[in-house]
Amino acid sequence: MKKILIVDDEQDIVESLKFVLEAADFTCYCAYNGEDGLRLAKEIIPDLIILDVMMPKINGYKISRLLKYDAKYKNIPILMVTARSQEEDKLIGEETGADEYITKPFELDEVVKKVEEYLK
Amino acid sequence: MIKTLLVSDNKSQTEKFQSIFNKNSYDFSIMTDEALIYDYISAETPDIIIIDEEYKNIKTLNKKIKSICENTIIIFLISDNKVDKDLIKYANAFFTNDMSEDLILSTLNINLRMKSSLDMLSNSNKDLADSLYRLNALYSTSSQFAGTLDKSKLIQYMIEGMDKALSFSLTCTLSLCTEDKPVLLINSLYELSEELITALKLRVILNYNSLFEGKTLPADITLDNLKVIKQIKYPASRFTFTLFQYDNMFAPISLGDNFFGCIEIFKETAFTAEDSTCFQTIAQQVSLPLKSATLYQELIETNHKLEKLERLKSEFISIVSHELRTPLTSIKNSLDILMSGRCGEITQAADKFLSMAMRNVQRLSGIINDLLDLSKIEAGKMDFNFAPTNINTVIGYVKSALSEVAKTKGLNLITSEAENLPDITADAQRLEQVLTNLVSNAIKFTPENKTIKISSSLVNSKDIKINEYFKDSIKLKEGDYIEVCVEDEGIGIAEKDLLHAFDKFAQIENSLSRKAGGTGLGLPIAKQLLEAHRGAIWCDSELHRGSKFYFVIPVSTNLN
Question: Which residue of A has its CA nearest to B366?
Fold first, then answer.
């Protein structure tokens, strides 16, 4: 089974994503802050990462950059989840290497469809 | 008394004139020594000099006299009636040996009268030159005043102007308007001792307090809080306390209720009435630009505050949007999961309320998007991807996206596009947003079985007809425009609401439209987006008959 890492400091969102992805036969790993997210990513080497942007300490862009510029992890697709605030817009200009941007609020079915596309 | 010098060693002549001068009580001297003559004319400036033509150095003497006392009357004593040509150019008159006493006296009197007229003329000439110089100084000072809104510079120009016009020995300028605390500017020819500066400070404070006797002081000034800035022209010399015996003038620098400071000026010689006028004029003249500068400064401060408020507002909206979006996502996800039936079967009643919740989640999310858009546009942070765009392509997209929604509502959505329209420089996505908004509104406000029409055309600015409600607020440059019109047969807009159609949250006023849903931000966003394209939007409408929304975008615009 394919492994998916969900990183978001909003537990409820993690919960709902986990629910639909598990229903679609994926194994989900969850992290609720940036540090755990980065650590888990390196530990389990997931097949795909769903990554929230705005998180305290290490934000999603930092994590994405750290993974995408590392030969060992650069092939893991990253779906970036954003709430489209102005601070995020500032960050969006930076090259982070994320494969896809999903804006909150998003359609769960659409996320599942995207994940399946990347993992075909 | 009339001062006369006789240069002759001819005894009979000197005796003759001596008797005449004595009789008429002239003050006179008789001498022939050259050095002595020079000393005398330099010190005394005689009214009349009578020179014997026999005098040996007559030519040099003439030149010397002309250079030292220009207006002195020169009369030559000649023995016969022959006149030396060289003497004519220096002479005011000639005396001959045989001239009677009466004739001599008359000649002297005529010349004295002429001299006094000449003196007067020369004096008024000098006065005129002085006035001209002063006028010039005043003029250049007032042009300097007009050229700046910097208060320190204005005060500096005032002092420089005073110096040019009055050449003072020392000025003490108290300024309450250039720094946070009161400042005493001392501009002095010579250095001042600490004691003298303290005395000057005390004097300024006394003057200042006396200006506001019985009234509230604009600021309390004491020896301790009065900062001194001095500028000394010749630091090698020093002023002493005798400075206080100099002539002085004092004036406040104020306009109405605005008090900027005061100025006192000292000079070794007495000031004239003209000096006083000039002094008052400059002190008065500076107060108007000082007032303007004060207003200007206040304006800038208010502007800064407003900008800060605007920024705070934008940030606030951005943060709020972000904070709202996250919990909204959780609600939406939960609803999605419930509605998918993955948590158990849903009854018909449950489905009704789940759909209701979902509809409102979507509405809320629309409001947040609109708010964020508007705050971005207003903060000038909206990014546009300007590119050559064909309006008919945009119309095509919007039609295909919304025709299904229109059909569900029993409406007919049709388009009428002009062929071969030129491209416009535009952000296609933003134009789609504008048009989607207009068509969605039309769908919302139009009852069943009616038609909504989107049309496009090429028009010249001369032929664009904007109704009287919007005519004044829309200024279009000359040239060709692409015009798009969304026409519906809906409820229309009342005349009184037409002008406010593009105001933020205008829809909230209208209970009918509230039922139809929407944020009330769509049209103001459309307006701002079109303005960013150098275009415009307006509408024609009649209550219960329908509305026509028009927007135009210039054909040839380089927006970068």
Answer: A105
SS3 B39: helix
H-assigned helices in B69-193:
85-88, 101-146, 151-166
* Contact assessment for residue B226 and residue B201, using Cβ atoms and an 8 Å cutoff: yes
**pTM for the whole thing?**
0.53
CATH of the domain at A51: 3.40.50.2300
> Which pLDDT does position B512 carry in this prediction?
46
| DSSP label at residue B509 | G
3-state secondary structure of B78: strand
Helix (H, G, I), strand (E, B) or coil at B126: helix
The whole-number pLDDT of residue B311 equals 79
Contacts of B333 in chain A (CB under 8 A): 12-13, 16-17, 105, 108
CA separation for the pair B435, B393 (Å, rounded): 12
With a CB cutoff of 8 Å and minimum separation 6, the contacts of B478 are: B461, B462
Contact B14, B8 (CB under 8 A): yes
Range of the domain at A92: 3-118
DSSP per-residue letters across B309-370: HHHHHHHHHHHHHHHHHHHHHHHHHHHHHHHTTTTS---HHHHHHHHHHHHHHHHHHHHHHH
- Determine, for residues B336 and A19 on separate chains, whether the beta-carbon distance falls below 8 Å: no
Q: Chain A: residue nearest B324 by CA?
A: A83
pLDDT of residue B559: 54
With CA atoms as reference, report the closest residue to B391 among B350, B420, B356: B420
Residues of chain B with pLDDT under 70: 505-519, 557-560
**Cis status of the peptide bond prior to A105, with omega within 30 of 0:** yes
Kindly report the nearest CA distance between residue B364 and chain A, in angstroms. 10
- Domains present along chain B, CATH in parentheses: 3-121 (3.40.50.2300), 142-300 (3.30.450.40), 384-554 (3.30.565.10)
Q: Give the C-alpha separation, B229 to B24, whole Å.
A: 62
Q: Is the ipTM of this complex over 0.85?
A: no
pLDDT in tens, B300-359: 999 999 989 887 887 787 778 778 888 888 999 999 999 988 888 899 989 999 998 998
Q: What is the dihedral of CA B220, B221, B224, B225, to 10 degrees?
A: 80
Which burial class, exposed, middle or buried, applies to B88 when counting CB atoms under 10 A from its CB (0-12, 13-18, 19+)?
Answer: exposed
Contact call for residues A28 and A4 (beta carbons, < 8 A): yes
B-side interface with A, Cβ within 8 Å? 314-315, 318-319, 321-322, 325-330, 332-334, 336-337, 340, 342, 361, 365, 369, 372, 375-376, 381
A110 touches chain B (CB under 8 A): no
3-state SS assignment for residue B80: coil
pLDDT for residue B199? 93
Integer Cα distance of B266 and B246 in angstroms: 6
**Pick from B338, B332, B340: which is nearest to B364 by CA?**
B332
- In the predicted model, residues of chain A with pLDDT beneath 50 are none
C-beta atoms surrounding B227 within 10 Å: 14
The pLDDT value given to residue B159: 92
Looking at the structure of chain A, the number of domains it has is 1
